[in-house]
Design a protein that fits this description.
2 copies of one chain form a homodimer. By secondary structure, chain A is an alpha+beta fold. Chain A contains 7 helices and 11 strands. Chain A has helices spanning 3-8, 12-20, 45-57, 123-131, 137-140, 176-184, 231-239; strands spanning 35-44, 64-67, 91-95, 98-103, 114-119, 147-153, 163-172, 195-196, 222-228, 244-248, 254-259. Chain A is globular, with a radius of gyration of 18 Å. Chains A and B meet through helix 3 and strand 2 of A and helix 3 and strand 2 of B.
């Protein structure tokens, strides 16, 4: 199934079914408009409470929107019949902090001690900004948003810590205040930006050399705006070097049944 | 130290010091205006992850604003030098789901496997409503807000579940919309109300016979408004019948260094 075909699928249930069956394995940006998409981290119960501590102490980069029972692949608060072993288009496996492989299904890797944690995602606020007429250049140019390591310290939780990863979107000066106000409405999608302007002030040496994603030009009438980024949690998981972590592949998110504008990310039948 | 003397203490540090020394053991409503106050639940690490799951799945009654390391009485994200063994005016101990005693210090009960969890509290939105000119009758009449068991189901996490406890405040009809809008700004303090009007619709038989707190009259030009209540978490902890739970005594909260209007409840030096 192509991205264009996936974009024409009518319901979240049908789209997740296509992903579950392996018919669609592409990125999910722009699919199922209005539905909350989620970063996913899967780790052993032994490390889960420390990871929750880390996320709860760093709510802007790591806003928790769902958590599964130990060993249970369901995430019933995010939608009916979610099976996290099959319902992401692509996964990445990391062992001892090193990338091992990218797969489209993790049933073969599932263990009874695994806990799935879902975190909010920037797609939510990007959609709200575009709906308000604020353009997103990386979307217009079909690029991956540029992401950077910073010197912004995180609050540690067990073995998880380090510094924040941010994403950057260039905005016209006139759009910055409204963008901040709009993003602040979405605390479960990274909330208001963490920095506006000088990249050097937060430890970014070269805006055109992002650590992840593609470089995006910033024109003379624009200012670079930086948001806390979900890659922060992946970075912390890898740096901790725990035996096995499974995450979504970048851009290949869990599509939930939660409306992006819902007060709480709790699905009700 | 009387309540009036505590209300004249200039800084949060001095107020927590008076509480730590046992000089002040009263309720904290109205003290340290503008600072986030917290419900506290202390339980063993064995049950902590399930309690976190329960809270994360029921964010309106149980908004997590802080979590400690296992065995560590500090809560550094809520303020410097907090020691949860001494820094509440009064605690309640429950064993196997039964109330055992109320104490002003828990150093003698502290264990290396204990995890402290802090939850947001209604004082935050009550203060915001009063600042907007919306009166709180139970405050005017120096009563404890009335609280009720409801039939609103919670999402379970491990042994924790049941139904929601709500608090009720009578509002003039004209104040209801603005009250909802103001409270929605505080997702970490129970957010917008969960119900307006008919108590029977959420399983409350008699408004003048609350399950906790004092009855408060509702006049002819008023409507009862119901908010998710932090007692929900205490209720779930007790119903689970786990060996030992320590909580704040009702109204005797942890006073943090976090501004109530802060975007995230993370204290920065």
């Amino acid at each position: 199934m192509t991205y264009q075909e996936a974009a024409r699928v009518k319901t979240v249930a049908d789209l997740r079914a296509a992903i579950r069956d392996g018919a669609f394995t592409g990125h999910t940006a722009g699919l199922a408009p209005g539905k909350l998409q989620c970063n996913i981290a899967i780790l052993s119960a032994e490390h889960a409470i420390d990871f929750l501590r880390f996320c709860l102490r760093n709510p802007k980069p790591c806003p928790i929107v769902g958590i599964a029972e130990t060993g249970d692949p369901a995430l019933p608060t995010l939608g009916p019949d979610i099976d996290i072993r099959h319902d992401l288009p692509r996964y990445r496996l990391y062992r001892e902090g090193r990338f091992v492989e990218e797969v489209t299904d993790i049933a073969a890797h599932w263990r009874d001690d695994m806990v799935s944690v879902a975190l909010g995602c920037s797609f939510t606020f990007e959609r709200a900004l575009m709906a308000a007429g604020i353009p997103m250049r990386h979307v217009e140019q079909d690029l991956t948003v540029p992401m950077y390591r910073t010197n912004l310290p995180l609050v540690s939780g067990g073995p998880f810590g380090g510094t924040m990863v941010v994403s950057m979107r260039p905005l016209r000066g006139q759009d910055v205040p409204r963008a901040v106000e709009i993003c602040a409405r979405y605390p479960l999608a990274h909330g208001a930006p963490v920095h506006v302007g000088d990249p050097g002030a937060i430890g970014i040496a070269a805006l055109q050399r992002p650590d992840w994603g593609d470089p995006v030009p910033v024109t003379a009438d624009e200012v670079p705006v930086f948001w806390a980024c979900g890659v922060t949690s992946q970075n912390a998981l890898l740096s901790a070097g725990i035996p096995l972590v499974i995450t979504h592949a970048p851009g290949h998110m869990l599509i939930s049944d939660i409306d992006e504008t819902a007060e709480t990310p709790i699905w009700k039948p």
